[in-house]
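Hi support team,

I've been running sequence recovery on a batch of backbones for a student project. Most finish fine, but this one hangs at about 90% for roughly twenty minutes before it completes. I'm not sure whether the input is malformed or the queue is just slow. I've pasted the C-alpha cells below so you can try to reproduce it. Let me know if you need the job ID as well.

Thanks,
M.K.
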C-alpha cells in the first residue's frame, strides 16, 4: 500500500483464517506521517525501528524511537507514526488480533 503522501506498507502476512496476526514493513519519508484509526478491539501492535527515527503518538504521549528500538502497545486505539528525521524511517510491524 502507498498512501501517496510518503507512507508505504509491504505486507508479508495478513490475518486470515487461523492466522491471528499481520506482519509487515513500513517506510515513512522525511516529514511524512500516517494515522491509523486502530485495528479493532483486542489488538496489540509491536514495532521495531530498523532505520531512521520514528515518533509514535499514542493519544497525547509521544515516543521517540531510534534504530533498534522496540515497543508494544494497544493498537485498538488511534495511533500516529511521524518521521521528523532527515532520512527515511523503516520499521517492522506485527499486529496481533487477540481472541
Amino acid at each position: 500500500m502507498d498512501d501517496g503522501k510518503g507512507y508505504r506498507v509491504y505486507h508479508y502476512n495478513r490475518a486470515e483464517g487461523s492466522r491471528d496476526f499481520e506482519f509487515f514493513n513500513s517506510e515513512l519519508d522525511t516529514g511524512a506521517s500516517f494515522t491509523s484509526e486502530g485495528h479493532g478491539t483486542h489488538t496489540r501492535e509491536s514495532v521495531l525501528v530498523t532505520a531512521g527515527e520514528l515518533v509514535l503518538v499514542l493519544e497525547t504521549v509521544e515516543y521517540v524511537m531510534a534504530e533498534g528500538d522496540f515497543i508494544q502497545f494497544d493498537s485498538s486505539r488511534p495511533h500516529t507514526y511521524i518521521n521528523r528525521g532527515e532520512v527515511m524511517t523503516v520499521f517492522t510491524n506485527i499486529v496481533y488480533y487477540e481472541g
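--
Follow-up from support: It reproduced on our side and the slowdown came from queue contention, not your input. The CA atoms of residues 57 and 80 lie 5 Å apart. No action needed from you.
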